[in-house]
């Protein structure tokens, strides 16, 4: 019964269904195009948003490399200066040691001859005692050398430490 009623309209029903499906496909393609456009706009927006951060990271890395290079150069310079000062201090210490050894030998000789010594020898012994005071002075110099070494180490650390401006 329904077949008998709809039989004359089959062609029209099929035509309407084809038009409906064509319209639906066109609408789906339109939505797909809108989606592609939205994705492109989103990608552009994300790229614009990320760009300042990427630039800031690049700039920070360049600044870091510059600071590290500056610090390395400063440390090398400070180390070279410290090595030179240590070499100078060591040379002064060797010189003082040689002088002290010579004075010790002289005092040893004078002590051996003092009991039987004439007046001139006793005078020489007095002079040697004066030289003994110089030996004490040399010991003082040795202590000063150690203090200088400590001061050099402290200065090296102080000069190697990054300046507050470089840390900003």
From TrEMBL:
Keywords, alphabetical: Membrane, Transmembrane, Transmembrane helix
Transmembrane feature ranges: 9-27
Entry superkingdom: Bacteria
Keyword Membrane tagged: yes
Protein name: DUF2514 domain-containing protein
